[in-house]
Amino acid sequence: MKIVDILSKESVICDLSSDSKKRLLEDLAVLAEKGTGIDRRVILDALVERERLGTTGVGAGVALPHTRLIGIDKIFCAFVRTNPVDFEAVDGKLVDLVFLLLVPEEAGADHLKALARLSRLLRDESVTEKLRKAKTNEDIYQVICDSDVAEG
């Protein structure tokens, strides 16, 4: 599974300005509503419930909020770069790079494959540096596409 198979250009935002983890999750829910047609409150509730299990702030300024959702038939992915937010990350650092992943309730292994792919991409410091320096949504999407292809 490639990231470009689940991420559209319309689901990339380079200049989100959230002032808290809660607000960031709300903003992600709004973005996901546009991409999935699922009510933002349903998405937000699912994301908040997932965060209660443990933070999806994986460290190094990166978060990978994800959850299963009833009502979607394919994986939805979004990427936002935001001002640094306290996301209760495992390393205590503020988060500015966020991939959102919503998967169908019955997604099975595809959920884990997508998370693993995103995780590998964001462990590459050259990729995260490019994502932080990109000027536009299109630039960010291109960085992800180029990095996704390079990974094979």
Q: What's the gist of this structure?
A:
45% of the residues lie in helices and 26% in strands. The chain is α/β, with parallel strands linked by helices. Helix 1 packs across helix 2 (40-53).
Written description of the protein model:
This protein is of the alpha/beta class and 152 residues long. It has one domain: 3-Layer(aba) Sandwich (Mannitol-specific EII, Chain A), CATH 3.40.930. Helices cover 45% and strands 26% of the residues. The chain is built from five helices and six strands. Strand 2 and strand 3 form a beta hairpin. The radius of gyration is 14 Å and the shape is globular.
What Rg do the Cα atoms give? 14 Å
CATH class: Alpha Beta
Known CATH architecture: 3-Layer(aba) Sandwich
Q: What is the total tally of β strands? A: 6
Class per helix and strand makeup: alpha/beta
Q: In whole angstroms, how far apart are the ends?
A: 10 Å
Relative strand content: 25-35%
**In this structure, how is the largest beta sheet organized?**
6 strands, mixed
Element-by-element helix/strand order: EHHEEEEEHHH
Mean pLDDT: 93
| Count of individual domains | 1
The name of the CATH topology is Mannitol-specific EII, Chain A
Number of helices: 5
State the helical fraction: 40-55%
Coarse morphology: globular
Could you name the ranges where pLDDT drops below 50 across 5 or more consecutive residues? none
